[in-house]
Amino acid sequence: MTRFVSTAWVERGSAEFEAGAALRVHATARRATPEQPLHIYVLAGYDKLEEPYLAHLRAAHIHLYDATTVMADVTEEYLALNEFANPYNVKCFLRWFVIERMCPGERLIHIDLDLFFRPDLNEVSRILAECEGTLGSPCITIATPEWLRVYRVMVDRLISDRPALEAELDFGGTTHRRNIASDQDLTQALERRKGILPQTLRGIGNWAILNNPLWGPQVLGRPTTYTSDDDFGGKPVLFWHLQNNFADYLARLALIQTFPYPRQEDAKVRLAYPDFHLSRSPENLAFYLLKVQGGYVRLQQRWRDETAMTLPNTGNQFELLFTRAWVAQAFIVEGRFREIFSDDWWWDETAFVKASPSEIAEKQNETAAAPTLPANVFVSGDVSGNTIIIEPSDRHVALAIEVRGTGNTVIVRRDCALEAMLVACGGAHIEIGEQTEMNGVHIHADEGSRCTIGARCRFSRDVRIQLADAYQVFDAETGQRINAPRPIHIEDDVWIGEYVQVSKGCIIGSGSAVKAASVLDGDYPGGALIAGNPAKVVHAKIKWKTLDGAARALSDPQHR
Q1: pLDDT-derived band of residue 215, with 50, 70 and 90 as boundaries?
Q2: What are phi and psi of 215, to 5 degrees?
Q3: Measuring CA to CA, which residue among 130, 113, 144 is closest to residue 7?
């Protein structure tokens, strides 16, 4: 007997949990059956779920179990995981031990809750009866007792001597991490070494498999047909995987379809990822603010400031569009948005831009003239008359570079892992040192200003580095400019937390760490902990270490 299982944790209550987990959509779709129910083990916060919500799911053969005690036990046993994994990945590491104890000796099919099968689970069980291994990120894992035993042994080895295990597995890092720091890193490394864990699922060739529909061409090749029956090239889709960026894409499309507004006829509507960074269209501005910053009132103000438009008074309807539950209901249950899979939309490289033929040709010429770029690096603007140097790296997540005018220089040194927007205008210079990592950073250099960032720096999400103001200010009597742009210099091995703003003229010494939401304006020494608004040194001669174990020795004289 095969058991379909998943895991989850609850932070606030039923409503907030449902907004992200979309279990009511699973219930409505009726894929779980009396013979093959879906068992979900709640690792934390089970007591926050309300009984009517649980009863509704049970009626659809979706059962939630309180696994908090078991989770507490395994958490205590594996405290060492906290030395190199963040809290989210610790939960992911431990979920397999919880499942093993809750379902001893059973063959399990673990699925992510953002995965929605088209056939019911009886049929899925038959389809996967002879399969083993994982699929995707993984969104499906066939966890036999032997698979769980090997996994447990390897986690123990990871804790006792991670460098030795990584060397044995020839682990060369991922896009996001240099070391094994998640269960996904570990299982995929084990699968690559034949004979340790089974490799990717096999035996399902009669079905179209889209691990992420946004990557359709990479998985399927160009399909010859798409029909209303959810077939690609004559093969039915086995499941829809509403991964974050695909769900976000559908929400963005819904925003455009649901809330029409006046716009110039030739304005571009760019929906491809990364959204806001590639085009400051009203749609992408709205999406960026809702998804990253949140709040309808803030959206109203920014939309008015940026586009001179006023949004309809729709209250929290915008917020609703960006929950996975709403997207899943629209896409899975109601069958909306299938038009994106037509050839004209989906497979044409210009499909995400509404533009005239001349504009498309101009864009293609720009691309042809641009330097050869690593994967996930995008350049917009006229590259002629500018210098763009991107040294080799296969770790970039989404690096968007925009140049305006001529005489600009953008240099990104080797082995960086950047999710960032770099804007260089009016002869500006931006340079980022080797092995630096960024997770949602915006750097804007204008009027010939210069931004230099050292090697091995770590930047968290929503960090803004602004070298010039968006306006010019003059003394009313003398006419002299009083807010000229100023350079920013960040030395090697600097950590900057989320929501930090680095103002023009800042210097941050080597090895310093900046706490979240700080506003920096001035010079800061090396080896210091910096915090506050305005930011100041709150502790000198510190060391900082990332959760993946990359330590920075900051007590050297150069850091004092």
Answers
A1: low
A2: -105, 25
A3: 113
